[in-house]
């Protein structure tokens, strides 16, 4: 037991999780911003923007995240010389963040749009009938209900994002959990089960509270109809 | 039907002028972004026709894409079958009347839903390799996909049964079936039919996650494209071809799932859509298809994407 704890310390398992949490945090911010813009495009009355939004969603929702991550390193950095930092590791970290954001933005967009779709048409008709014009109707009546309807799907995207930060391994981020786990197992295969369960439980601990929180939030904030 | 009907009235002459203006501006911006990307590509010599030709010629297909594609399909097909068996076992287990069985199945399902697929792949790959199993990367991919997607299917089964009208079980019990018999021969079969569209959507997730196999050196489509690109110096082009292949297949499958759920809604009415309600949102690679039009009522931490006809309800 003591020996195993030493191994955990030696390979800095907590530090590996911290890298994944940071990846998840920045990717969540960026994908929320990008996804909101895309959702605006898709619910706007302007045809070309609608088209751009749905084309983006179709492309990235159907593409494996691994391809995007490989592309960020071998394509965007290797061939197109897109560099985000002079430091090697920092550069890969941000390339991975961009890859994750680009992919999950498509899902954020769909989550927000599904929130708008939970608002019944009667709400908009009622808003218009009491004389609200477009912006007040959207601000006072429709969007507040839409956001409350979007909490559960957005929480699911966040959970998927946290788990998907392990795919940063494909973008050469060597300090994140799946890479560290691989190295640990390769050097200490006598502890293979303990190592796997350490990392697995780590993710259960990270993901479960978020699932419970968003479920209870979406229930308590739900618009009862 | 779409969002505009909530947010927008039918446009009058002034709004139509504004929409036209927005259209022009939007088109210019989209075209501008595309032009910037193309300029950058041209600047780095990536638009050189020989690079693209080498990425799509007969040799590339014969030696790289086709074998890779076959390996992807092999792993995905085996995984979806395994996931269905796993999902049925544990989904029914979660509905058992025995507390112990329910708890064990629930814990197993929640565990595999929370652990990233890639961690499981790496673990099983190295475990099998240490045990001297041939094709350890193939089995690593398959087992990880079965466990994760099986857990998702188990949730589908459970929510499908919960979505059935209570009268189904009451009727089964009243003709003298036990609870287990009622589950096996009345409720689960109906839930299975109702969850068919969700299963097809899950196949998209399986296909996408099978690309994780490239990280554990399974020679699937992405890995082969990467090798082609490394050999010919056209990694960008090879990746683009692989991406297009994935998008086409998955887009086709998503459309099929949509069609299925539409026809199901027609035939089985409310029961069908409600049972197919849980959208396996918590997908890893995945987030499943968070916007299939058929997603309706949901249970637990699945995604709740209700459409207009069946708005999400949280009771």
TrEMBL record, chain A:
Domain ABC transmembrane type-1: 17-214
Domain of life the protein comes from: Bacteria
Pfam family, one: BPD_transp_1
Subcellular location: Cell membrane
PROSITE patterns attached to this UniProt entry: ABC_TM1
Keywords attached to this entry: Amino-acid transport, Cell membrane, Membrane, Transmembrane, Transmembrane helix, Transport
Predominant cellular place of this UniProt entry's protein: membrane
Transmembrane segments: 23-41, 62-80, 92-112, 191-212
Membrane association type: Multi-pass membrane protein
Similarity annotation: Belongs to the binding-protein-dependent transport system permease family. HisMQ subfamily.
Protein name from the UniProt record: Amino acid ABC transporter membrane protein 1 (PAAT family)
Protein species of origin: Isoptericola halotolerans
TrEMBL record, chain B:
Classification via PROSITE patterns: ABC_TM1 (PS50928)
Record-linked Gene3D superfamilies: MetI-like
Bias-annotated ranges (Basic and acidic residues): 306-315
ABC transmembrane type-1 domain segment(s): 69-257
Keywords associated with the record: Cell membrane, Membrane, Transmembrane, Transmembrane helix, Transport
Membrane-protein topology: Multi-pass membrane protein
Pfam family, one: BPD_transp_1
Region called Disordered, residue ranges: 291-315
Organism domain of life: Bacteria
Subcellular location: Cell membrane
Bilayer-crossing regions: 20-42, 73-92, 99-126, 235-253
InterPro entries: AA_ABC_transptr_permease_3TM, ArtM/GltK/GlnP/TcyL/YhdX-like, MetI-like, MetI-like_sf
Family membership: Belongs to the binding-protein-dependent transport system permease family.
Protein name: Amino acid ABC transporter membrane protein 2 (PAAT family)
Species whose genome carries this gene: Isoptericola halotolerans
């Amino acid at each position: 037991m003591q020996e195993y704890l030493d191994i955990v310390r030696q390979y800095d398992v907590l530090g590996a999780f911290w890298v994944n949490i940071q990846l998840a945090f920045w990717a969540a911010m960026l994908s929320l911003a990008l996804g909101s813009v895309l959702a605006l495009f898709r619910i706007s009355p302007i045809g070309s923007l609608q088209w751009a939004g749905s084309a983006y969603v179709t492309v990235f929702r159907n593409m494996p995240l691994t391809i995007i991550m490989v592309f960020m390193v071998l394509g965007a950095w290797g061939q197109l010389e897109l560099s985000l930092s002079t430091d090697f590791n920092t550069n890969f970290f941000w390339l991975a963040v961009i890859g994750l954001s680009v992919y999950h933005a498509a899902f954020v967009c769909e989550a927000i749009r599904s929130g708008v779709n939970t608002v019944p048409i009667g709400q908009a008709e009622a808003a218009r009938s009491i004389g609200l014009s477009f912006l007040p109707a959207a601000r006072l009546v429709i969007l507040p209900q839409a956001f409350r309807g979007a909490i559960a799907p957005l929480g699911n995207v966040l959970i998927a994002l946290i788990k998907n930060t392990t795919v940063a391994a494909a973008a050469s981020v060597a300090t994140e959990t799946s890479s560290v786990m691989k190295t640990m197992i390769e050097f200490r295969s006598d502890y293979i089960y303990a190592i796997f369960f350490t990392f697995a439980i780590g993710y259960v601990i990270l993901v479960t509270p978020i699932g419970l929180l968003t479920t209870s939030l979406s229930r308590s904030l739900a618009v009862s109809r | 039907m779409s969002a505009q009907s909530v947010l927008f009235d039918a446009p009058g002459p002034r709004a139509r002028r504004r929409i036209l203006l927005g259209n022009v501006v939007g088109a210019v911006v989209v075209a501008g972004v595309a032009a910037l990307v193309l300029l950058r590509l041209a600047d780095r010599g990536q638009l050189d026709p020989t690079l693209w030709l080498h990425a799509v010629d007969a040799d590339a297909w014969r030696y790289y894409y086709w074998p890779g594609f076959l390996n992807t399909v092999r792993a995905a097909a085996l995984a979806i079958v395994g996931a269905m068996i796993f999902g049925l076992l544990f989904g029914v287990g979660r509905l058992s009347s025995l507390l112990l069985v329910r708890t064990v199945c629930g814990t197993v399902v929640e565990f595999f839903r929370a652990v990233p697929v890639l961690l499981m792949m790496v673990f099983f790959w190295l475990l099998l390799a240490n045990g001297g199993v041939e094709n350890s990367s193939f089995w690593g991919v398959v087992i990880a996909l079965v466990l994760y997607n099986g857990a998702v299917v188990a949730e589908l089964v459970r929510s499908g049964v919960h979505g059935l009208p209570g009268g189904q079980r009451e009727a089964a019990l009243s003709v003298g079936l036990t609870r287990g018999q009622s589950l096996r021969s009345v409720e689960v079969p109906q839930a299975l039919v109702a969850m068919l569209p969700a299963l097809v959507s899950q196949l998209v997730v399986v296909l996408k996650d099978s690309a994780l196999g490239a990280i554990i050196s399974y020679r699937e489509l992405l890995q082969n494209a990467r090798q082609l690109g490394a050999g010919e110096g056209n990694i960008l082009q090879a990746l683009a071809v692989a991406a297009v292949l994935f998008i086409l297949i998955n887009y086709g499958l998503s459309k099929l799932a949509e069609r299925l759920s539409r026809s199901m809604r027609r035939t089985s009415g409310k029961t069908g859509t409600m049972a197919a309600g849980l959208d396996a949102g918590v997908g890893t690679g995945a987030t499943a298809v968070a916007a299939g039009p058929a997603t309706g009522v949901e249970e637990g931490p699945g995604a709740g994407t209700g459409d207009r006809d069946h708005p999400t309800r949280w009771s």
